[in-house]
TrEMBL record:
InterPro entries (UniProt xref): P-loop_NTPase, T6A_TsaE
Compartments (UniProt record): Cytoplasm
Transferase keyword on record: no
Pfam family, one: TsaE
Species this protein is from: Asaccharospora irregularis DSM 2635
Gene Ontology BP annotations: tRNA threonylcarbamoyladenosine modification
Protein name: tRNA threonylcarbamoyladenosine biosynthesis protein TsaE
GO cellular component, one term: cytoplasm
Family: Belongs to the TsaE family.
Chief location: cytoplasm
SUPFAM superfamilies xref list: P-loop containing nucleoside triphosphate hydrolases (SSF52540)
Native organism taxonomy: Bacteria, Bacillati, Bacillota, Clostridia, Peptostreptococcales
An annotated Gene Ontology molecular function: ATP binding
Length: 150
């Protein structure tokens, strides 16, 4: 587990961008944090690093948005999901097992169906700033975290 202090929005964007340079085909990034913690902000910068040209907004009502970039990006926001089963109805299995990058806002709500390996990223309010807690599951993600904090 690694903690990074994010003193302002710029820092959140910087880390998101760096992470976007490190992800690989099939990477799964879980974003956990209260409303306004910075999950979508981070996703936007990660998308920029993946050379996605579209403007990214939270897919709260559609659950998942697809983008084309250096790798395909699948941006989930599962806040409004009723139960994990609904995820399979929208093709969750295919997305997770694809060569794209999956980034899942509110992934804690579908913890029972997360794959074996992923990067768990918690964003917490620290007064006006934020703190990021990175917990890699699996060797691949441990390496990504090592690179991220270099
Ligand atoms: P979420 O998707 O988690 O609901 P958003 O990314 O939509 O959150 O919104 C995060 C808000 O917090 C934005 O207004 C952004 O400018 C701000 N923000 C992001 N990172 C930081 C930070 N490190 N310190 C202070 N404010 C931040
Ligand atoms: Mg959001």
């Amino acid at each position: 587990m690694v903690k990074i202090y994010l003193e302002n929005e710029e820092k959140t964007k910087e880390i998101g961008y760096k992470l976007g340079k490190l992800v690989e085909p099939g990477s799964v990034i879980c974003l956990i944090g209260d409303l306004g913690a910075g999950k979508t902000t981070m996703t936007q910068s990660l998308a920029k690093a993946l050379e996605v040209d579209d403007y990214i907004t939270s897919p709260t009502f559609t659950i998942v948005n697809e983008y084309e970039g250096r790798l395909p990006l699948y941006h989930f926001d599962v806040y409004r999901i009723g139960c994990s089963e609904e995820m399979y109805d929208i093709g969750y299995d295919e997305y997770i097992n694809s060569d794209g990058v999956c980034i899942i806002e509110w992934a804690n709500l579908i913890e029972d169906i997360l794959p074996d390996e992923y990067l768990y990223v918690e964003l917490k309010y620290k007064e006006m700033a934020r703190e990021m807690i990175l917990t890699p599951k699996g060797e691949k993600y441990e390496k990504i975290v090592e690179e991220l904090i270099k």
